[in-house]
């Protein structure tokens, strides 16, 4: 049997993908003769929807001759595709340096008596506690490390607790602050990273049994940006296996609001860990819903930025033309603060840009017109209307399925180029959910790639979300963690019965 797999072909007038190898086959030239004879049969052209070609036009020999141009390393960390989405706004010349946002002032913040309440405070409130010397970064780090150890295994949301690194970074922060060095509101704030983001000396498992012991000597650019802002890394958080859904080699990640529900994915760990107060914020990623779905399920605020806003160097790739990194937080204001720290261009990522944003904290939302669908959450619509936003109902003139189909084809082909060796070597037989990547990668075909993005939407969306959250308290609610976690003072805690993992259809 023959399938189209991982060969990227640039074209002068556009871009397209052609993928061809023998399934589980050997790519040595000596095996190509019989392979080509079979591929040139009429039935094979029909299977490929290419009956308009004849043997002289198919050029299979050229495809095979260039087959080794495909990256042989898994994960897309080396030899990135030459086919990267490049939008019109990416060529705009920035006239001025990108300015940081002007954060709102926070006054009269008092340290709560309970550590559990501290764990659910906003980034600005935690920063005020640190800067007013009501708490040290080391103390704050200890609070979140304790919660990660207590609840992480229950939620199946934590891969690695980076305790030694965290305490070293927190002590460094406290020393800097005592000397008057202030790196901003994230200075001394703990965070977690989705486990597709490389951190030296720590595992980057990508959620897969195939890579569960992998340690990469790479420092992801987004982690560098966070370190420059003084952030303390406390944990590597679960990603669905190879960034797909919420199933990983250690189980299936759960929703802290309902332990019998799963978090969805693939940013399966960042969402519940933020929701449950195991971290003040986390960095996740999205190719097609991997931030929006778990954020909605677990009741947190996530910002999936415009493509190119946040650099992806050192991050496992599904699709260079679709992957985005962004923050999971408790509020839109927190998302704006984190985005401000991690945005910007890296020369090693051709898609990254210095994108100028108006300060979301100063947007006049009364001048905005926002459309909503008939199944929208009407509470949000009414709140924004009361804030002066012009809310307009509308209907889509296309089906979601049609758009999803195009996106899936593009994503699957890019993913295949990044994990061609993994599948050809038979490691996909051990994949955690056989109806996911193993099946999808076998379906890859010739696909055009296209995407449209608008940077201006980010600051407007943040402003609207902050307006809504200013008069509601949904984002301040705490899930019933005492009902799902063991009592740390109980020497013999009862065993928690967790429902068996069930695959969704």
UniProtKB/TrEMBL annotation:
InterPro entries: Amidase (IPR000120), Amidase_dom (IPR023631), AS_sf (IPR036928)
Coiled-coil stretches: none
SUPFAM superfamilies xrefs: Amidase signature (AS) enzymes (SSF75304)
Membrane-spanning intervals of the chain: none
UniProt GO molecular function: glutaminyl-tRNA synthase (glutamine-hydrolyzing) activity
Keywords: Ligase
Annotated Amidase domain residues: 139-404
Chain segments carrying region Disordered: 471-505
Protein name: Ligase
């Amino acid at each position: 049997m023959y399938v189209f797999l991982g060969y990227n072909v640039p074209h002068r007038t556009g871009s397209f993908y052609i993928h061809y190898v023998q399934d589980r086959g050997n790519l040595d030239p000596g095996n190509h003769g019989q392979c080509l004879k079979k591929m040139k049969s009429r039935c094979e052209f029909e299977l490929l929807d290419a009956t308009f070609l004849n043997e002289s036009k198919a050029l299979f020999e050229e495809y095979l001759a260039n087959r080794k141009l495909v990256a042989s390393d898994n994960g897309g960390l080396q030899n990135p595709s030459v086919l990267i989405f490049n939008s019109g706004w990416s060529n705009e010349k920035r006239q001025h340096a990108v300015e940081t946002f002007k954060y709102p002032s926070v006054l009269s913040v008092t340290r709560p008596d309970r550590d559990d309440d501290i764990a659910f405070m906003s980034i600005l409130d935690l920063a005020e506690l640190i800067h007013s010397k009501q708490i040290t970064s080391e103390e704050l780090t200890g609070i979140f490390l304790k919660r990660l150890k207590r609840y992480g295994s229950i939620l199946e949301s934590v891969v690695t607790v980076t305790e030694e690194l965290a305490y070293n970074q927190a002590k460094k922060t406290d020393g800097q602050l005592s000397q008057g060095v202030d790196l901003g509101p994230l200075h001394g704030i703990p965070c977690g990273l989705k486990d597709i983001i490389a951190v030296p000396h720590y595992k980057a498992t990508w959620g897969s049994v195939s890579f569960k012991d992998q340690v990469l000597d790479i420092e992801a650019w987004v982690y560098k940006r966070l370190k420059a802002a003084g952030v303390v890394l406390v944990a590597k958080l679960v990603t669905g296996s190879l960034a797909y859904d919420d199933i990983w080699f250690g189980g299936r990640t759960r929703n802290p609001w309902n332990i019998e529900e799963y978090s969805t994915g693939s940013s399966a760990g960042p969402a519940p860990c933020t929701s449950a107060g195991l971290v003040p914020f986390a960095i996740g990623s999205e190719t097609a819903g991997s931030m929006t779905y778990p954020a909605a399920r677990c009741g947190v605020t996530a910002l999936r930025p415009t493509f190119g806003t946040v650099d992806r160097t050192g991050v496992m790739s599904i699709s260079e033309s679709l992957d985005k990194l962004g923050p999971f937080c408790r509020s839109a204001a927190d998302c704006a603060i984190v985005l401000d720290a991690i945005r910007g261009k890296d020369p090693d990522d051709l898609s990254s840009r210095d994108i100028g944003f108006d300060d979301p904290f100063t947007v006049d939302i009364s001048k905005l017109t926002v459309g909503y669908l008939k199944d929208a959450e009407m509470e949000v619509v009414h709140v924004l209307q009361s804030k002066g936003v012009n809310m307009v109902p509308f209907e889509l003139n296309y089906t979601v399925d049609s758009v999803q189909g195009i996106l899936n084809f593009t994503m699957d082909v890019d993913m295949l180029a990044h994990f061609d060796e993994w599948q050809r070597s038979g490691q996909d037989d051990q994949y955690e959910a056989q109806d996911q990547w193993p099946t999808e990668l076998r379906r890859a075909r010739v696909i055009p790639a296209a995407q449209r993005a608008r940077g201006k939407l980010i600051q407007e969306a943040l402003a609207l979300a902050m307006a809504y959250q200013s008069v509601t308290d949904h984002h301040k609610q705490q899930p019933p963690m005492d009902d799902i976690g063991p009592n740390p003072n109980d020497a013999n805690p009862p065993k928690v019965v967790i429902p068996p993992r069930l695959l969704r259809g």
